[in-house]
């Protein structure tokens, strides 16, 4: 009997269409460069399946987004999460965009390496991660502690809020600590994707 692994994959038959048809398939914000592939959605683990995962040093960092809705920001956060070895990304189902072409393009391939978990309630998800041994740190402008002063645990939930209102009250209350990125310039804060990159880098370096 022929092994399934030895059977060559069936190549899809290309269909030639005009550019307006491609624009209609992917939406106005996606850059398709004249080629679109209709693929099945990537498998997404549950929070219970994601929590036990760690790297070869036993470290695990899960990024949690509280009502961050811009697909470009989420894509950039995914890219940083992948670069700095985060275990996964958790978003609230009702307040996060789907994985569109624009999000995937900004992520530069990270959607295939960083699992995205959608949950109904972010506060409850933080409670579940605490029960699984995670220490939760929320980034908040004006927090009493600076990011550099916090020794990262082996299992970290890094929580970021929307650029407009930041972390919601219940989410803030569920965090074990709130930390601010030191500001030495004239602007109040960083873009949320930049803040995520700074925090992920700082935590990864402190754990080396």
Q: What is the gist of this entry?
A:
This protein is an alpha/beta fold.
Our estimate of the beta-strand percent is: 15-25%
Average pLDDT for all residues: 88
Spatial arrangement of strands, main beta sheet: 3-2-1-6-4-7-5
Largest sheet report = 7 strands, parallel
Number of helices: 7
Shape: globular
What string gives the helices and strands in order?
HHEHEHEHEEEHEH
Alpha-carbon Rg, integer: 19 Å
Low-confidence stretches: none
Proportion of helical residues: 25-40%
* Broad structural category: alpha/beta
Query: Count of DSSP E strands?
Result: 7
Instruction: Give the terminus-to-terminus CA distance.
Output: 50 Å
Describe this structure in words.
This protein has seven helices and seven strands; from the N terminus they run ααβαβαβαβββαβα. It is an alpha/beta fold. The mean pLDDT is 88. A seven-stranded parallel beta sheet has the order 3-2-1-6-4-7-5, sandwiched between helices. Helix 3 (71-83) runs parallel beside helix 7. The protein is globular, with a radius of gyration of 19 Å.
Which descriptors apply to this entry?
single chain; alpha/beta; 30% helix
Please specify the SSE layout and strand pairing.
Elements lengths: L18 H8 L20 H4 L9 E7 L4 H13 L4 E5 L8 H7 L8 E4 L2 H10 L3 E5 L5 E2 L8 E7 L7 H6 L2 E4 L11 H15 L2
Parallel strand pairs: 1-2, 1-6, 2-3, 4-6, 4-7, 5-7
Helix pairs in contact: 3-4, 3-7
């Amino acid at each position: 009997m022929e092994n399934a692994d030895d059977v060559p994959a069936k190549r899809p038959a290309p269909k030639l269409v005009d550019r307006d048809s491609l624009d209609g398939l992917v939406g106005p914000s996606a850059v398709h460069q004249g080629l679109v592939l209709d693929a099945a959605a990537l498998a997404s683990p549950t929070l219970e399946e994601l929590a036990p995962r760690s790297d070869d040093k036993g470290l695990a960092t899960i990024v949690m987004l509280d009502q961050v809705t811009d697909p470009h920001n989420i894509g950039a956060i995914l890219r940083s999460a992948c670069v700095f070895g985060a275990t996964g990304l958790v978003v609230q189902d009702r307040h996060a965009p789907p994985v569109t072409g624009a999000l995937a393009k900004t992520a530069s391939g990270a959607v295939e390496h960083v699992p995205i978990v959608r949950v109904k309630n972010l506060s409850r998800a933080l409670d579940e991660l605490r029960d699984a041994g995670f220490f939760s740190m929320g980034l908040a402008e004006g927090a009493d502690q600076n990011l550099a002063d916090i020794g990262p645990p082996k299992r970290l939930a890094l929580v970021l809020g929307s650029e407009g209102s930041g972390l919601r009250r219940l989410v803030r209350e569920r965090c074990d600590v709130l930390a601010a990125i030191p500001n030495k310039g004239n602007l109040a804060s960083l873009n949320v994707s930049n803040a995520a990159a700074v925090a992920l880098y700082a935590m990864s370096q402190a754990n080396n």
